[in-house]
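A reminder from the course coordinator: this example appears on the midterm review sheet, so study it carefully.

Given structure:
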């Protein structure tokens, strides 16, 4: 497939569209809970929401490639580049995309409504990815959507438009911000080559330059949080290799990349009291919840956490992407919630500013299931016994109700009955199928509690899951 920009940008998009990033970031090693009452209250509210939308959108969307990473010269299978073009020329061609990225059908309220219908309750929008392209009107750099082909559009301050639209739909608002900035001369100095994702000069020998980068980063975050963009509930910081050297799982080649998080956090909470700060994979007081990527922890966690997982193979828009089925999303959500986490599902809008039709369709099917079964997901907390095979358990915050989310293999017909061990109801309890709203027959057996499922004709085709609520009778 030839992209109409290939002659301008000097590369063909086919090699990029066929590859996906598969690297998985594990959760950080330790967790330090916040102490501030406002932050703890915000964290409790966030844990009620369970299901969020992560939006990657930028120059990489125009090109239909893996987000940002092709301009990083590391040799990884998920960082493809056209071998017919020199690396520096490739970077220049990538930067030039600012002159053609013009999303004339940009409609963030449509995104928000799609997510709301899917059952999503919070959003994390990428204000800047590692490539340094700003999706907001920053005064610190001209490498911004407000200075490119979209500059004359009244909606050009994209982040502001997105936050306002999602706030209108009552989402909790999160700002994704990349700590590394590969376009900044204070991070990737063009005096030297850029061999890795890290800064390409010695900080010890060039402290002035690194201090300029710290000021640059502080000022950009301050722009996002000083009130011009409204109330921001989550500051979601990516690029965990930018950190003090001590305790780093991926220690920088030249020591510490300390950007003074205490100063940034103090500023953030001065403007936005109670804001959740998520310095991803960097254990400590500025990681208010943990964020394993593309995977689910093997066991239940009592600390607050969130798995960020894309709906497709890639975070941003790739024309040939293959999306997960609604049943896969539901199964993933059930497992994550039973283990104590939230699911942040990655969505990539197209270059014109619309969502792919297939994304809208799949999200609407997830939403249809949650509309009936969401009581077992939202506003719940963990139970000591959280699963038996592919049955996952949650409970209401007050502990009065127990929920069982029964999943079966995609493509198979719903079974007539299911059996689970653990969390077995007391005699006289009622079990109601949330999908139908009707009580179901159940009995205790030597193998556990046996529950009758509604007839297959009463279940939506292809959902591969149903939830039950267990309550005691009034007499008890």
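Designed residues:
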């Amino acid at each position: 497939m030839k992209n109409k920009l290939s002659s301008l940008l000097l590369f063909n998009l086919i090699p990029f569209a066929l590859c996906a990033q598969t690297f998985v970031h594990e959760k950080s090693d330790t967790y330090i809970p916040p102490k501030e009452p406002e932050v703890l209250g915000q964290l409790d509210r966030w844990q009620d929401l369970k299901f969020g939308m992560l939006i990657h959108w930028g120059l990489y969307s125009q090109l239909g490639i893996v987000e940002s990473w092709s301009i990083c010269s590391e040799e990884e299978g998920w960082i493809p580049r056209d071998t017919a073009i020199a690396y520096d020329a490739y970077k220049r061609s990538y930067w030039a995309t600012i002159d053609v990225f013009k999303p004339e059908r940009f409609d963030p309220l449509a995104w928000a409504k799609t997510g709301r219908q899917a059952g999503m309750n919070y959003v994390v929008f990428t204000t800047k990815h590692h490539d340094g392209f700003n999706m907001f009107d920053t005064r610190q750099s001209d490498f911004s959507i407000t200075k490119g082909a979209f500059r004359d559009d009244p909606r050009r301050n994209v982040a502001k438009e997105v936050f306002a639209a999602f706030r209108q739909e009552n989402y909790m608002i999160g700002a994704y911000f990349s700590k590394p900035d590969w376009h900044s001369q204070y991070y990737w100095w063009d005096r030297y080559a850029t061999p890795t994702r890290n800064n390409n000069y010695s900080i010890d020998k060039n402290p002035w330059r690194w201090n300029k980068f710290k000021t640059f980063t502080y000022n950009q975050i301050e722009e996002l949080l000083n009130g011009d963009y409204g109330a921001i509930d989550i500051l979601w910081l990516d690029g965990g290799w930018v950190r003090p050297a001590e305790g780093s799982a991926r220690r920088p080649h030249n020591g510490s990349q300390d950007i003074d998080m205490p100063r940034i956090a103090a500023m953030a909470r001065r403007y936005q009291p109670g804001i959740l700060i998520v310095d991803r994979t960097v254990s400590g007081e500025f990681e208010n919840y943990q964020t394993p990527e593309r995977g689910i922890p093997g066991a239940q966690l009592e600390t607050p956490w969130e798995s960020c997982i894309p709906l497709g193979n890639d975070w941003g828009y790739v024309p040939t992407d293959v999306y997960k089925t609604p049943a896969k999303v539901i199964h993933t959500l059930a497992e994550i919630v039973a283990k104590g986490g939230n699911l942040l599902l990655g969505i990539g809008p197209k270059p014109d500013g619309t969502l792919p039709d297939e994304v809208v369709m799949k999200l609407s099917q997830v939403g249809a299931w949650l509309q009936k079964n969401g009581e077992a997901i939202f506003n719940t907390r963990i139970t000591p016994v959280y699963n038996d095979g592919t049955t996952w358990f949650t409970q209401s915050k007050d502990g009065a109700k127990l929920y069982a989310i029964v999943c079966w293999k995609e493509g198979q017909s719903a079974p007539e009955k299911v059996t689970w061990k653990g969390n077995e109801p007391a005699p006289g309890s009622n079990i109601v199928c949330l999908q139908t709203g009707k009580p179901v027959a159940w009995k205790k057996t030597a193998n556990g509690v046996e529950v009758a499922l509604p007839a297959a004709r009463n279940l939506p085709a292809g959902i591969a899951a149903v939830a039950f609520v267990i309550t005691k009778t009034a007499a008890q």
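The mean pLDDT is 90. The longest strand covers residues 122-128.
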